[in-house]
Predict the structure.
Amino acid sequence: MVAEAQNLKVSVWRGTGETGEFETFDVPSRESQTVLDVVSWIQQQADPTLTYRFACRVGMCGSCAMMVNGIPRWTCRTHVKKVSENNTLRIEPLRNMPVIKDLVADMDPFFDKWVSAEALHHPTSTRNDAITPVDATTPERQAADAGIECINCGICYAACDTVAGNPDYLGPAALQRAWTLLNDAKDGGRIAILDAVSGSGGCHNCHSMGSCTRYCPNELDPMSAIAGLKRETFRHALRRKRDA
Amino acid sequence: MMRPARSHPLWLAFVLHRISGLALALFLPLHFWVLAKALTAPAQLDAFLRLTDNPAVKLAEFGLVFLLAVHFFGGLRLLALELLPWPARHKTLAAAAVALAFFVSGTFFLEAI
Amino acid sequence: MLDLKLYMAQRLTALIMAPLVIGHIAVMIYAIQGGLSAAEILGRTQGSVFWFAFYGLFVLAVSVHAAIGLRVIAHEWGGLKGPALSALTWAVGLGLLIMGARAVWAVTWA
């Protein structure tokens, strides 16, 4: 009723690279409005030079994540009503990443760390081999399945204070993918993964503060995945010592 | 007011663990220095220990025992979380750690006064 | 900042200290009854192989544990890195070890 008539006060980060400032827009409030709707309204009705990123609008592609009132969120699936405070919104590019322009963060460092963590497929067979059957009931497969739905949105990475304090830290997303691959019967990179996550930027920097798990829009649990890596690397190192 | 991205139980548990660890590490040199007085200047050690009859010092002692207890139980929580493949009861663990720390340091405090 | 080796050292010293901390807190609660005095403390510890081993091990473990902990804080909150960070780690570890060893020696053997 009243909400229909009231305008939203929306502060949006504007700027290129390291410099910038907030610009405030009045946006008409609507029923069932998402934060991405608000950003799109500003770009279409108020200022066509506003730069932001989105694609699917249904929470599958992971490209529209931004900081909304200080918290990283997938804006296409975030209702304004749930996150606005006194009809105000503050929208910024994702934390812990360089800014390209306005609301667009440079995700290169984020994805480079996936590669550094060996969070990529290590094939075990060729097209001429029979397909390896996957047994969905094993604990390893269940551990892999628990983290498989990551959409690479970068929200956990933006939420992580360890990344903020330690720029070399690989971060929750890359480490969680490393953990799912470690548990994947079709992945042959076990030693490579364990070594990759044991370096000075590796999984052992995690302080289990759990912001990744708290803010993951797909309700995944990177913190526990990283705990799994710590356990596995620890065990592997003890075994290596014993066999040496 | 804009909320910080971190005000949730596990982040608070992390901060408590870090602050208590930092404070204990800074306290240790003083602790060692005073005890070494037993070797170099026994009279001074006794004079220092008499300070502990002061209520303000008792309160500070309680603080130290609390820091130790909080770091101890917080550490056990982390070890359990990392070394045992436990399900997600992290918040309960965090709360239990603080509760136990209060219990242990409270016992110390009641004995002290 | 914390690779596997430092992490293992941190967790293993934590495991070593877990029973020692319980013992230490129990001793504190017991010792403060009726006030503290140098004579009381030394009467308990002087010449005791048990307390020498107990607190000797404690000092060794805490030196490693605190050095690694402060290293992480200095990096994450202080921005320290490279050789300066390594120097700090070693200085804290060795400093605590020397001071602690001296304290243990003073109350048990000297």
